[in-house]
Amino acid sequence: MKSFLLVISLCSLLVPAGLIADCETKEILIKVEEHAKLINDISFDFSQKITMSYGDYSYIISGKASFKKPNLFKLEYIKPEKQIIISNGKTLFTYSEKLNQVTIDNGLTDTDFAGIIRHVCDLPEFIKNLSNEYEISCREKKNGFYSIICVPRQTLENQKKIGAENEKIIFWISERNYMAEVLETKTETATSLFTISDVKTNTDIDNKYFTYKIPKGVRIISNE
């Protein structure tokens, strides 16, 4: 649980010319950036359904998340098992109820964030990073959502990669708040559908919410 991700960027400046397929896509991403700058903190419920391509098998991950700039966050997993991941900006705590264990990671930087919510907290940078390997375009708005579609570039490396032609990432951007309320990821082996709901922004979350007191009697693992 030590590796984490995040995201944001200014489309017209941080995404090199030619990487975004059309002007409409650029306009949408600029609005995404403008709205992202206005958000100081955010909390939401999340659900992720992962369906395997073989065997007709699927499972669900769900929970609650909160984030406050620049690098405070808290993830509370409900399914498949109860778990808490929390950062006070310097130290990351991961608590597993099932294992009765807390893992402590020190020395976090401003780019260490919980990967499962990366695209929610900092969408523009996330898309900017994808643009190095993916062609990015958009579909016409439907039911109040813009869909930003990312498909692998036709590079020699991708041509050698098995199943690359089946890969696709789709961001469903809400016209209401210009956030990726749905993220769909397709690969050769699985499809993931990540959805957020009950979104609250700029509620001035107290920093104390991102502190963690280690329960008595748990096993402690420290990664210095």
Question: Would you give an account of this structure?
Answer:
This protein has 224 residues and is α+β, with helices and mostly antiparallel strands. It has a single domain (11-223), classed as Clam (outer membrane lipoprotein receptor (LolB), chain A), CATH 2.50.20. Helices cover 16% and strands 43% of the residues. The chain has five helices and twelve strands. Strands 7-8-9-10-11-1-2-3-4-5-6-12 form a twelve-stranded mixed beta sheet. Strand 1 and strand 2 form a beta hairpin. The radius of gyration is 18 Å and the shape is globular.
Helix content: 10-25%
CATH superfamily: Lipoprotein localisation LolA/LolB/LppX
Top-tier CATH class: Mainly Beta
Radius of gyration (CA) equals 18 Å
Strand line-up of the largest beta sheet = 7-8-9-10-11-1-2-3-4-5-6-12
DSSP strand content = 35-45%
Uncertain spans: 1-21
In N-to-C order, the SSE pattern is: HHEEEEEEHHEEHEEEE
Structural class: alpha+beta
CATH architecture: Clam
User: What average pLDDT do the residues reach?
Assistant: 81
- Number of E-type strands: 12
Tell me the number of helical segments per DSSP (H or I, 4 or more residues long): 5
Main beta-sheet annotation? 12 strands, mixed
- CATH topology assignment: outer membrane lipoprotein receptor (LolB), chain A
Shape: globular
Q: What is the total number of structural domains?
A: 1
- Ends apart, CA distance between termini: 14 Å
